[in-house]
Design brief:
- The complex is a heterodimer of chains A (650) and B (307).
- Chain A is mainly α and 650 residues long.
- In chain A, 67% of the residues lie in helices and 1% in strands.
- Chain A has a two-stranded antiparallel sheet.
- With 307 residues, chain B is of the alpha+beta class.
- Chain B contains seven helices and eleven strands.
- In chain B, the strands form two sheets. Chain B has a six-stranded mixed beta sheet with strand order 8-5-1-2-3-11. Chain B has a five-stranded mixed beta sheet with strand order 4-10-9-6-7.
- Chain B is elongated.
- Classes of the chains: A mainly alpha (650), B alpha+beta (307).
- At the A-B interface, helix 4, helix 8, helix 9, helix 10 and helix 11 of A face helix 1, helix 2, helix 3, strand 7 and strand 9 of B.
- One copper (II) ion (CU) binds next to loops of chain A.
- Chain B: It holds the Pfam family COX2.
């Protein structure tokens, strides 16, 4: 207990950090000023901070992840700048270590996952003909826990000091002995807080998809993206508790002096690696399976063809999700588990290539005999195939345990997982962003700029990461903050850095693309701007608050496509409107998450009293929620009629 | 191996290698992983080439199909009214492309499992094997030669053509012991002993480094492996014994503290050095030395320390 302000509470030594601090304060002041000047506080609170609407929550997820893509991207560019040439001094060792830790952690937890969650939120209820998720209130809580966890992580480099043991945070390096101070605590507590949110999202979407599908939509009639989210939710439910436990054990080690991961007290440092990767490998599929789902939607939409081998696509995902829990040891073949264990995990890892290969061929045969329109979302989807193929096949090479003894922890690995994560998850998110953008906002993003962004990003990406395979085979290991001359590494690193900057330019064009299109983008008056196949395209854009005025009835895969073909109205379309039951907005998810933030911040600095106050706040919010009875309202028929006729669908 | 498979392998090696070198346009020696200097690295290299060849076939096939479909079936003014057929799938095709990856996985899994077991064994050589003990500490490598009784820091001398068993542990964080020219890496961990067989076919100097991040100066955790002819190796040992200083406990402890170190050579090392990696933490090692009368494993002998 007690209140010890660490010496360097506000981090000052480093000029770059001071600049970032000043910029952060100015940005914050700017936001506060703008909200006050334009009298937008109430709007912010009523429309966004208290919303339980899955579409708005989705949009907030996506905005946050784009910001984090920017932050993590800047970190990436800083590292690439430092590594452009041998013996540079842009960053020193300590700073570099903090930056790659922040980069990896942010990209995985605060960029890729929330981006996927955002798209899930936007699209899944619309695809299954539902009016919201199963637990809208919980959904808001999930988002705000993610948001405050993310904030907690992001202030670390300014207040108290950033974590620096890598996103994998291996013990004993991350133990209190070798890493005293708040840095690692930030990592542990921010991931703990946002991780609770992720787990709840998994539960929420599992129930939503199982219980809230429109009549007639059997499991095997669900859109492929919804299928991918269903499977992802199951993975989340099995994987995240492991992370929760690992984080909790290490937190207890650090804050209360236990010895789960220290040799001296009979603990086992290697246990962290095991727990981390038992969660960590499935985590890769948590971000990549939904991306697969997005590609399936986009490819079938723009090839104007039904997805080839739908049921094989489903089964392959089921197999992938199951096997993904049996491969974690491939992250440490070189920790001496013995030949039997290594052989098992080698083969299980290679086996994942089989269902993945099936998917790739099914995508190719969806394109085959299609009429392919290369819209921006389609470019990202088509660009994904070769990129992910390279990532996947180098993954198979890494699965060959004895060969991995040579690739492990080298730039070969860095290249592999960027091909998989960027080529898979990020391309998927961007495909989804361009694809569902009109549904979220009612206008399309400018296609010409979008294509520029795609080509710059894609070419830059390959320039950045392809050379890294070679420099890995030359013996360059990951997490080196500098390297000497004369090893032949320089040309590859230089090309890599040039590629990274090209990706940066691609990103900036994308942001410009968004800002430009807000004013000039093509308005979506039909609600079906891409000539889509699934139910989200059957309603107006942006989707009305209640989604579906009448719950549709489904009798086939690609339900909307068939409805369009049929032309004749179905009986359900002629039914009279009824009042719609909707959940009330609530400020409590936001407030409760803020209390989590208070508790987390206190525990980061080991001010246990503050931790207790924060947790009491959380408890109080839970109590209040338990005694809340009036938490819903009805939208009356006349309001529905007004909304529908405003969208031209009376 | 049957002649066909052997031929296939040779062919793949050739294609794979030339592809790599063509793309890279650099000298082979700089690709340390692809330029094995001993039997362990060679075995791994063979697997790398084999897997690369298999993957290359798949890449070329899939890229071919990919290019064909996206060029042939793109929307053009000529096919404006074309309505793509709704194909549900094809049992036959889907079975084929399930079986192809199955075959590839089998072709890869068999040599993988063989090599995984093979690498546990001592590489074959006419000369008897030797053992060198390795301890990684923040941020340096300490090598002990139990038979010779000497110690070196940040470099290790080995006899060429001799299987060397590295027995590895760590004080402080994990590191990973990697000499790409001689073979793949293995982690060093506190409280745990790991074994790694390596062998250099020829005398030479090979670069080693830590491959696992271990904190601030991890990048500088490099070491040289100096392989000498067996006769020169014996000469070197004699010379070290004659000319190098003994290492005191205090010096050893000093070495374990966080910081960088130069290359060093000692003609002896203190007994605590054999326990350091098992205790795994500097704090614990200091405690142990202050209480030598309290043996907990039975392996530690009484000794007198410097003060
Ligand atoms: C904007 C483009 C990107 C660039 C320029 C970039 C660059 C880098 C660099 C230079 C490293 C550190 C290598 C090292 O020193 O070990 C790294 C590590 C990493 N990157 Fe990226 N990256 C980018 C995008 C991404 C994305 C989108 C993801 C995930 C979705 C990602 C995930 C990671 C992870 C997990 C690590 C490992 C961090 C660690 O070692 O703890 N990166 N990246
Ligand atoms: Cu261990
Ligand atoms: Cu994995």
């Amino acid at each position: 207990m007690g209140f010890h302000l660490p010496k360097n509470f506000l981090v000052t030594g480093e000029p770059m950090i001071v600049v970032a601090e000043v910029l952060s304060v100015l940005t914050l002041a700017g936001i506060v000023f703008a909200l006050t000047y334009y009298k937008k506080w109430k709007w912010l609170w009523d429309e966004w901070l208290t919303t339980v609407d899955h579409k708005k929550i989705g949009i907030m997820y996506i905005i946050s992840s784009l910001l984090m893509l920017f932050r993590g991207g800047i970190d990436g560019l800083l590292m690439r700048t430092q590594l452009a040439l041998p013996n540079l001094h842009v960053l020193d060792a300590e700073h570099y270590n903090q930056i790659f830790t922040a980069h990896g952690t942010i990209m995985i937890f605060f960029m890729a996952m929330p981006f996927i969650f955002g798209l899930m939120n936007v699209a899944v209820p619309l695809q299954i003909g539902a009016r919201d998720v199963a637990y809208p209130y919980l959904n808001a809580l999930s988002f705000w826990l993610f948001f405050f966890g993310c904030m907690l992580f992001n202030i670390s480099f300014m207040i108290g000091g950033a974590p620096d043991a890598g996103w994998t945070n291996y013990t004993p390096l991350a133990g209190s002995d070798l890493a005293p101070g708040p840095g690692i605590n930030y990592y542990l507590l921010s991931l703990q807080i946002s991780g609770i949110g992720s787990l709840m999202t998994g539960i929420n979407f599992l129930v939503t998809i199982l219980k809230m599908r429109a009549p007639g939509m059997t499991l095997m009639r669900m859109p492929m993206f919804t299928w991918s989210v269903l499977i992802t939710s199951i993975i989340i439910i099995f994987a995240f508790p492991v992370l929760t436990v690992a984080l909790a054990l290490l937190t207890i080690d650090r804050l209360f002096g236990s010895h789960f991961f220290t040799v001296s007290g009979g603990g086992e440092p290697m246990m962290w690696a095991n727990l981390f990767w038992i969660w960590g490998h499935p985590e890769v599929y948590i971000v990549v399976l939904p991306a697969f789902g997005i590609f399936s939607e986009v490819i079938s939409t723009f090839a104007r063809k039904r997805l080839f081998g739908y049921s094989a696509m489903v089964y392959s995902m089921v197999v992938i999700s199951a096997v993904s829990f049996l491969t974690w040891v491939h992250h440490f073949f070189t920790m001496g588990a013995g030949p039997a264990v290594n052989s098992f995990f080698s083969v299980s890892t290679m086996a994942i290539a089989i269902p993945t290969g099936v998917k790739v061929f099914n995508w190719l045969f969806t394109l085959y005999k299609g009429r392919i329109e290369f819209t921006t979302p389609m470019l990202w989807a088509v660009g994904f195939i070769p990129t992910f193929l390279i990532g996947g096949l180098t993954g198979v090479m890494l699965a060959v345990a004895p060969a991995d003894y040579q690739y492990h922890n080298s730039y070969f690995l860095i290249s592999h997982f960027h091909y998989a994560l960027v080529g898979g998850a990020v391309f998927g998110c961007l495909a989804g962003l361009y694809y569902w953008w009109p549904k979220m906002f009612g206008f399309k993003l400018d296609e010409r700029q979008g294509k520029w962004a795609f080509w710059l990003f894609n070419i830059g990406f390959n320039l950045c990461f392809f050379p890294q395979y070679f420099v890995g085979l030359m013996g360059m290991t990951r997490r080196m903050y500098t390297y000497p001359e004369g090893l032949g590494w320089t040309p590859y690193n230089l090309i890599s850095t040039v590629g990274a900057y090209m990706m940066g330019v691609g990103f900036i064009i994308m942001v410009y693309n968004i800002l430009y299109s807000i004013r000039h983008g093509e308005r979506d008056l039909t609600g079906d701007i891409w000539n889509g196949r699934t139910l989200e395209w059957s309603i107006s854009s942006p989707a009305p608050h209640y989604n579906f005025a009448r719950i549709p009835e489904v009798d086939d895969l690609d339900a909307w496509w068939h409805m369009k073909k049929r032309k004749r109205k179905q009986p359900w379309e002629l039914r009279p409107l009824k009042p719609i039951h909707m959940p009330n907005n609530s400020g409590r998810p936001f407030i409760m998450s803020a209390w989590f933030f208070v508790a987390g911040f206190g525990l980061v600095f080991e001010w246990h009293w503050m931790g207790i106050i924060g947790l009491l706040g959380v408890l109080y919010c839970m109590l209040k929620r338990s005694f809340e009875y009036d938490d819903h309202h009805y939208i009356q028929v006349d309001e529905i009629e007004r909304t529908e006729s405003a969208a031209g669908r009376a | 191996m049957e002649p066909f498979r052997k031929r296939l392998r040779q062919w793949l090696t050739l294609v794979g290698l030339s592809a790599v070198l063509l793309l890279a346009g650099c000298s082979r020696e700089q690709y340390v992983v692809l330029d094995p200097k001993g039997p362990v690295a060679k075995q791994q290299y063979d697997l790398i080439v084999w897997s690369f060849g298999l993957m290359l076939i798949i890449v070329l096939a899939v890229f071919g199909i990919f290019a064909y479909v996206i060029i042939k079936y793109r929307a053009k003014p000529e096919n404006k009214g074309y309505e793509p057929p709704d194909q549900e799938g094809s049992k036959l095709l889907e079975t084929i492309w399930t079986l192809i990856p199955v075959a590839v996985v089998i072709a890869l899994a068999i040599p993988t499992v063989k090599a995984t077991y093979g690498l546990e064994k001592q590489p074959s050589s006419d000369r008897p094997p030797m053992t060198i003990k390795v301890t990684s500490a923040d941020w340096k490598w300490i090598f002990r030669y139990p038979k010779e009784g000497i110690e070196t820091v940040n470099y290790v001398t080995i006899p060429a053509d001799t299987p060397v068993r590295f027995e590895m542990d760590a004080v402080g964080p994990m590191n990973s012991f990697w000499v790409p020219s001689l073979g793949g890496q293995e982690y060093t961990m506190p409280g745990m002993v790991m074994n790694l067989w390596l062998q250099a076919d020829q005398p030479g100097v090979y670069q080693g480094r830590s491959a696992n991040f271990s904190g601030k100066y991890f990048t500088h955790m490099t070491f040289d492996v100096i392989a000498k002819s067996p006769a020169d190796y014996d000469k070197w040992v004699q010379q070290v014994k004659k000319t190098a200083p003994k290492q005191t406990e205090a010096q050893y402890l000093q070495l374990l503290e966080r910081g960088l170190a130069k290359k060093m050579t000692f003609s002896s090392y203190p007994k605590i050095a054999d326990q350091a990696g098992l205790i795994g933490e500097v704090k614990g090692i200091r405690e142990k030395m202050n209480r030598p009368e309290e043996p907990d494993t039975g392996t530690m002998h009484h000794h007198h320390h410097a003060h």
